[in-house]
Every structure is written in C-alpha cells, then in structure tokens.
C-alpha cells in the first residue's frame, strides 16, 4: 500500500507550469507518439484535470510546425459538445517544444476503451455514431466546410462515466472552398478514402473514414491486416476500391448495411446529416428482452432516441466568410511576422476551444498542395 501511495505521489508531482501560471503539468504520462508526449495536468483556476501535450520539433520539423499552427488557429473557432476543446497553446523557442492544453477525456480513446470492455452492444455503438456524426456535421455544414482528414478510432475519445464521445486530433483538418477539392495525400491508411489517393476529394472523405472506424469499433481488428503491414499493398487495395478482410466480420446485418452506405463511391456517399436521419440511428430498440416492458415504455425509449438525434442536429452552422488570403486558417490568424514575434514573447497562437492528440498509428506524409 505504501509503495502504491509513493508511486501516485510521483505521478502527480507538478513538473512545470504554463506561461500564464494557470496550468500545471504532472509527471503522469497518458499517451505518446513519434514526436509527441501527452501528460495529465491540472487547471488551478477551474479545478479540473487537463491533458498537456508536448511536441518536440527539430530544424527539419517545418511541416509539423505548420500543422500545429494550423490546428491551433482552427481550434479557436470550434465549439461543439462532441469536439475536444483546446484551452491554451504556445511555442517555446528555447526548447523547440510546442505545448497544447486540452480537455481530458478520462477513459482515453475508443480503441483502448473497446478493448477494455468486451460487451459493447449495438445501442452503445449507435449512441457513439450519433455523436461522431454530429461533430462531422458541425464541420461539414459550415459556410466554409472543414474536412478532418484523419477520422479513426484512435482519434475518438470518451468519457466512460457519461458515454460522451468527442472527435479530436485536428492536425490535418483544413477548410475547403465550396465546390473545390483538396489534393494533399494525408491521413491514416487504415481508414483512408480512395479519393484521397487520387488527390481530389472533399468532406465526403470523412464519411468513408467514419465507416471504416465503425468497422474498427465493431470488429476490434486492424484494417488490411492481410497485407502484413506492407503499405504499398494497402494503398493498392485502397486504389482498387477493395475492402479489408475485417469488413466481413461485421456480421450484424443492420450495422453492415449502415457501414456499406458510408463506404459507397464518393458520388453516392451520404452526408453526415443524412446518416443522422438514417433509420438505423433514428429507430432504436432495446437489445434486452422486452418481456415485462410495456409498449408505452418502449415507445418512450424510441422517442428519447429521436429527441437525441434532433438535439444533435440543432447546431447553428458557422457564419464566417472565407478568407482567400489565408485559405486554411480563420481570418483572425496572426501574420507570420506577428507569429514569430509571439514566439519570442511566449504568447499563444490559439487559446480557446479545440482538440488534443494522443499517440496514434503513423500517418502518410503530405505530398502536394491543397487547392
């Protein structure tokens, strides 16, 4: 017992403070990627736990730096119950570390959560799907849509006590001009839409990735495992429109039909709003025996589900105008000259509303310029 108490004291030892002296980073690590480490921390003002991520940059990390700036700038404009919030971010030029303070989802990402809990039923999957699609609809239904470009099970976080899921990791998210396409090949091969490899895609690519994420949730399998980690074989299957073998293990007919809608060719693929109104999500039923449950009670449950969907859809679309001079950033983004000045002064690039990123599988590198 004494050893356990000592270990806990070490994990919750305050290691550093943010420049504002509001947030404290603990010694407890909760995630790690190639260049990023995520720690638990504490907000001394609101008295809540937070996630503190540190991304180590090098002289050759220019693209990563640009992605982090883009992410922090974009996050200032986001405010949705199913989107991870970012409270503060800054760059320390002396250590070449980019810091981001974000909302903490206590149960981690859905990969870890579903591996821990083996009894996830259809009702829970439907509930999570509504919330993920609500976040995607929030991005896609804006006057200037946002494409996430890396929807996957590791980028969906959950508060297990409430059943609330939140979409996170917006390092690849970009705004897109109405009627235009993005061209950079970015994302994670496991959930990547075929049109991304064709270098011409829009927000519908996120719907394909959502469908593949559902396969990950339902089967708990690695997509394209039959390719034995050979990325060229994976990319070949994606280009040819061949589905991973794991899809065959999504045996529930209702879920499989819903997934298949998400994986249609991009011209036939439904929008997030259409999927939210799909009978699979709107007409929910109990998974337990209905013996002894009155018809009125079952009807009340169904009405509750319909109300949940209606509430998720009652989000005001974004009203901002597109700024052609900054393209991927909000119009309020500081100039590069001001950014450099802010770096020297230790100020922030984005201080409100946003997302976090924990350790996740490797992504592809960006290969061309968005248009």
TrEMBL record:
Keywords: Kinase, Serine/threonine-protein kinase, Transferase
Pfam family, one: Pkinase
Annotated GO MF terms: ATP binding; protein serine/threonine kinase activity
Region annotated Disordered, chain positions: 316-371
Enzyme class: transferase
Reactions the enzyme catalyzes: L-threonyl-[protein] + ATP = O-phospho-L-threonyl-[protein] + ADP + H(+); L-seryl-[protein] + ATP = O-phospho-L-seryl-[protein] + ADP + H(+)
Positions with biased composition (Polar residues): 349-362
Residue ranges annotated for the Protein kinase domain, each copy included: 24-281
PROSITE patterns: PROTEIN_KINASE_DOM (PS50011), PROTEIN_KINASE_ST (PS00108)
Its EC number(s): 2.7.11.1
InterPro entries: Kinase-like_dom_sf, Prot_kinase_dom, Ser/Thr_kinase_AS, WNK_Ser-Thr_kinase
Biased amino acid composition, Basic and acidic residues: 335-347
SUPFAM superfamilies for the chain: Protein kinase-like (PK-like)
The protein's name: non-specific serine/threonine protein kinase
Species the sequence originates in: Chenopodium quinoa (Quinoa)
């Amino acid at each position: 017992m004494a050893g356990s108490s000592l270990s806990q004291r070490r994990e919750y030892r305050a290691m550093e403070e943010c420049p504002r002296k509001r947030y404290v980073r603990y010694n407890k690590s909760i995630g790690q990627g190639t260049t990023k480490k995520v720690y638990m921390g504490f907000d001394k003002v609101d008295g809540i736990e937070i996630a503190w991520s540190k991304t180590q940059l090098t002289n050759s990390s220019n693209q990563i730096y640009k992605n982090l700036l883009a992410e922090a700038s974009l996050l200032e404009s986001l405010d949705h119950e199913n989107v991870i919030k970012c409270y503060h971010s800054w760059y320390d030029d002396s250590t070449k570390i980019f810091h981001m303070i974000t909302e903490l989802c206590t149960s981690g990402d859905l990969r870890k959560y579903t591996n821990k809990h083996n009894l996830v039923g259809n009702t829970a999957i439907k509930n999570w799907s509504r919330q993920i699609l609500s976040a995607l609809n929030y991005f896609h239904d804006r006057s200037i849509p946002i494409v996430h470009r890396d929807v996957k099970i590791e980028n969906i976080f959950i508060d297990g006590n409430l059943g609330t899921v939140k979409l996170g990791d917006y390092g690849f998210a970009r705004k897109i001009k109405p009627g235009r396409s993005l061209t950079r090949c970015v994302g994670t091969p496991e959930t990547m839409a075929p049109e991304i490899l064709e270098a011409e895609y829009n927000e519908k690519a996120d719907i394909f990735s959502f469908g593949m994420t559902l396969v990950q949730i339902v089967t708990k399998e690695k997509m394209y495992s039959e390719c034995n980690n050979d990325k060229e074989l994976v990319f070949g299957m994606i280009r040819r429109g061949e589905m991973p073998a794991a899809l065959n293990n999504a045996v529930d007919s209702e879920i499989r039909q819903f997934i298949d809608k998400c994986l249609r060719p991009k011209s036939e693929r439904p929008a997030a709003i259409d999927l939210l109104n799909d009978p699979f999500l709107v007409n929910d039923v109990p998974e337990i025996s209905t013996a002894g449950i009155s018809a009125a009670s079952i009807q009340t449950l169904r009405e509750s589900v319909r109300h949940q969907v209606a509430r998720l859809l009652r989000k005001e679309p974004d009203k901002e105008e597109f700024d052609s001079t900054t393209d991927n950033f909000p119009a309020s983004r500081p100039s590069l000259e001001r950014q450099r000045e802010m770096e020297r002064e230790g100020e922030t690039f984005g201080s409100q509303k946003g997302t976090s990123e924990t350790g996740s599988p490797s992504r592809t590198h960006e290969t061309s310029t968005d248009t």
